[in-house]
Each structure stands twice: as structure tokens, then as C-alpha cells.
Write a structure and sequence with these properties.
alpha+beta, Alpha-Beta Plaits, 3 helices, 18% helix, binds iron/sulfur cluster, binds FE3-S4 cluster
């Protein structure tokens, strides 16, 4: 199993999650982060750190967001690792909680 970043990270990218990951398995795209499922050790530390509540265990991903499991696996192979907290995206607070953000995902 692995932990998965889901839709609410898109256009927020608070990055608090990367600070606690002991195995540096977060990868960064323009407006979203993903977890490499091959590296994640299920330590659970990142889940409570996300201000957007975007991180879930693979078997607890909310209904309708199951496609993010595959997206994390796919994009983590393409995007570089991020190990340090950065500033959230502009207007992250306004985007936090909005739905339908998948179509705004930049690759
Ligand atoms: Fe990293 Fe642990 Fe979160 Fe997996 S569960 S991404 S190992 S902090
Ligand atoms: Fe995204 Fe939450 Fe991390 S918004 S960057 S998963 S802290």
C-alpha cells in the first residue's frame, strides 16, 4: 500500500507534507504534489500535516478520486523529488476545498 495525494492539493500545494516524510518520496509538478508508491513506507506522518486534507491511505481514498492512485504512480516517475517546504501557491487558501480541480492539473 501507499499514501496518495488527491484533488484538493491542486492549486494549493502547501508543501507541509514534505517536511515530515522520512523517505523523501514526494515529487513536485507545477501545481500539485504526488507520492511515489514504490518509495512510501506507510509511516502515516504526512496525512495530518496537510492543511488541505488531501492525503489519504490508498484504501481510504474518497469515492470518485480513485484515479489519483494511478496519477500518483504515473507522475512520480516524471516529476522531481521535493524535500523542502516552499511557499504555497498564490491564492492557495481560496482554492482550498474547491471541487473539480482535476481539469486544472498542470503536468
Ligand atoms: Fe512519506 Fe510516510 Fe507520507 Fe509515505 S506515509 S508519503 S513515507 S510521510
Ligand atoms: Fe499538497 Fe497538502 Fe502537501 S496541499 S503539497 S499534499 S501539504
Amino acid at each position: 500500500m501507499a499514501f496518495v495525494v488527491t484533488e484538493n492539493c491542486i492549486k494549493c500545494k502547501f508543501t507541509d507534507c514534505v517536511d515530515v516524510c522520512p523517505v523523501d518520496c514526494f515529487h513536485q509538478g507545477p501545481n500539485f504534489l504526488v507520492i511515489d508508491p514504490d518509495e512510501c513506507i506507510d509511516c502515516t506522518l504526512c496525512e495530518p500535516e496537510c492543511p488541505a486534507n488531501a492525503i489519504f491511505a490508498e484504501d481510504e481514498v474518497p469515492e470518485g478520486q480513485e484515479n489519483f492512485i494511478e496519477l500518483n504512480a504515473e507522475l512520480s516517475k516524471l516529476w522531481p523529488v521535493i524535500t523542502e517546504v516552499t511557499k504555497p501557491l498564490l491564492d492557495a487558501d481560496e482554492w482550498n476545498g474547491k471541487t473539480g480541480k482535476l481539469e486544472l492539473l498542470e503536468k
